[in-house]
Amino acid sequence: MSVTLNAHQFGRLLERTAGHIADEFIPALHGVRLEADDTFLYAIASDRYTLAVARYRHHGLDGEPFAQTLPARALASLRRWAADQPGNTPVTVSLAENRLRFTAPQGEVGIGVDDGQEFFGWRGVPRGVIDQIPAEDGTTSPFPALDTRLLARWTDADHYLRLRVTADRQGALLVGEDFIGAQMPVRTRHDGFDTGLADDLDQVRTLWDGALAGAPAAAMPDSLPAARRTPTTPPARCPRRPRACCGRH
Question: Domains in the chain, please, with CATH?
Answer without folding.
Answer: 2-112 (3.10.150.10), 124-191 (no CATH)
